Amino acid sequence: MNLVESIKMALKSIKSNKIRAILTMLGIIIGVASVITLVGVGQGSSQSVTDEIGSLGTNLITLSVNDTESVQLKDDHILEFQELNGISEVAPVVTGRINAKNQDNTAQVSITGTTPSYLTVRNLTLSQGRFITDMDDVLRQKVVVLGSTTSETLFPYENPVGRSVQIEGVSFQVVGVLDSVGTSLGTSGDNVMIAPLSTTQRITQSTAIGTVYFQAESEDYVNRAMFQVQGVLTTLFPNSSDYYSVSSQEDLMETMTSVSDTMTLMLGGIASISLLVGGIGIMNIMLVSVSERTKEIGIRKAIGANRKSILLQFLIEAVVLSTLGGFIGVVIGLGVSKLMEVFSSITISYSPFVALLAFLFSLLIGIVFGVFPANKASKLNPIQALRQE
Amino acid sequence: MGNSVIEINQMSKSYELGGETVKALQEVSLQINEGDFLSIIGPSGSGKSTFMNMIGCLDKPDSGEYLLDGKKVNNMKDHELAAIRNVKIGFIFQNFNLLNKLTALENVELPLVYRGLSAKERREKAINSLERVGLGERIHHMPTQLSGGQQQRVAIARALAGDPPVLLADEPTGALDSKTSKELLQMLKELNKRGQTIVIITHDLEVAKETNRIVRIHDGQLYENGGDWFEPSRIYQNGTQEYQEQ
């Protein structure tokens, strides 16, 4: 008896008991569908994190100072960085939280004091007006660029450019508004305000530069540039390497992807358990089927079916059930992912590899959980089996 | 008399039943020739079923020798026995034992499927076999759409499909009314006339009387009075008694 014959036989037997077959397959269907959807969600979030970080530019190098007392960066230090090879832009940043007010509208926002380079280094774009200039910085102009959320809060009904806002009681002129950058890694990039470095240092009464952003000339220079930055820092602040850290976007990306990969693995693992439960369901129903069809097995054996034929028949039945379930599960899984993508803001990444893997896993489950009942059927004594009613 | 199809020498079989050893067959010997139309008659508990299982290669004897169509089968392994059953024996059961989910044609094809024939060849042989039992018009009917007599004819067609040297019928009329029984026995007779070796296992003397050779089985031993001569009275009584008991 060949395989095609056995598969036909299995399909026939499944067709004769449709509801049972569907209920049995349901376990596998749900299992496969949830593996695909959940892994899709996991990979999607991993993807969106990577994209977000990537959107900041892979050439970005960040110097974070943890202890601004020990490592006091000054303007001339910044100039030193600017002279380094392979670095195109340097943007020192002073941050603080301030209260901004426009008539009755108030907002507590973070203010970023920086130089014009910031715009390029952070890949920002303006929706209207202009960004701060070198002259603003030198002349300590009281000008400010608003993030899109800040702009909406303070100027809900009017164009903010050219108007003034009160920051800690001082009047600033709004010169521009940034495009929305969305929420990145849990913090809104739009609830901000950008002012010249010198002005900000005065308003926040802090001269400490906490962060410096560098842009490497190209991706290939990132590591070399990092090395140089570290070199300069070691010369400027010997024995203080614990107080600052230099990292590239790549480092950050690696950390974030490893986090979301773990999440993906966990989601996939949970879904796989349901697939396993589905497999047990198949085994259960196959055992019932074997005992129901004892007589049939007896007849088949009497007319010449050997153990292998009977084993194959029941095994194929289990495998057909599980792979059919697996196939339906793949279709439903992809469908649900698509729906989730349309109706919610979650990014879902489709992976044909995961779909294939889930499908093959369902096939494997059919074999593993089909062997036991099939073996039981094949071992039945034909005389006793024939006696069964 | 032709060549022997079945040759059984000193065959014994016993089994455990409720802690007791039942000697179902005690060194029985029997020779069945090609073209024989033979019945094995005995009441229940006589070892009749055990003997049928032996002839049908469904079970292995404890001792003794069994040659089926020239092949020694008493030492064969399970899968070899399955192949022997497939090729050498055509089973006809009391309750027809058709698979209800398959059509008449598919039922008849089944032994040929296990023999590994191609779909075309199977179909040809199965249709041919169904035509021989007069069911050429009903090949696509399900067993439940057929009468008892028709179902038993499908079973005969299934048994004949693979051209086995021996047709082994276990109470073939047991589930049929008397008129259908007669028709069925007539059909078996016709088959025998064309050279088919047939062995019927029965407890019914009326059935046995239709055959050319009667072997009585009692307490695990065979008795044969040879040729056409037979001592009917004793068996007849046993037969009717049992019939009434049922």
Write the layout of secondary structure elements.
The complex is a heterodimer of chains A (389) and B (246).
Chain A: H1 3-15, H2 18-55, E1 60-65, H3 75-82, E2 87-102, E3 105-114, H4 117-121, E4 126-129, H5 134-138, E5 143-146, H6 148-154, E6 164-167, E7 170-178, E8 183-184, E9 187-188, E10 192-196, H7 197-203, E11 211-216, H8 222-236, E12 244-248, H9 249-292, H10 294-302, H11 307-343, H12 352-378, H13 382-387
Parallel strand pairs in A: 3-10, 5-7
Antiparallel strand pairs in A: 1-11, 1-12, 2-3, 2-6, 2-11, 4-7, 5-10, 6-7, 8-9
Chain B: E1 4-17, E2 20-33, E3 37-41, H1 48-55, E4 63-68, E5 71-72, H2 78-88, E6 89-92, H3 104-115, H4 119-132, H5 148-161, E7 166-170, H6 178-193, E8 197-202, H7 205-208, E9 213-218, E10 221-224, H8 232-245
Please explain how this structure is put together.
The complex is a heterodimer of chains A (389) and B (246). Chain A is α+β, with helices and mostly antiparallel strands and 389 residues long. Chain A has two domains: 182 residues, no CATH class; 165 residues, no CATH class. Chain A contains 13 helices and twelve strands. Chain A has a six-stranded mixed beta barrel. In chain A, strands 8-9 form a two-stranded antiparallel sheet. The longest helix of chain A has 44 residues. The two termini of chain A are 27 Å apart. The model of chain A has no long low-confidence stretch (mean pLDDT 87). Chain B has 246 residues and is an alpha/beta fold. Chain B has one domain: Rossmann fold. Chain B is built from eight helices and ten strands. In chain B, the strands form two sheets. Chain B has a six-stranded mixed beta sheet with strand order 6-7-8-3-9-10, sandwiched between helices. In chain B, strands 2-1-4-5 form a four-stranded antiparallel beta sheet, covered by helices on one side. In chain B, α3 runs parallel beside α5 and α5 packs parallel to α6. The longest helix of chain B has 16 residues. Chain B is globular and about 50 Å long.
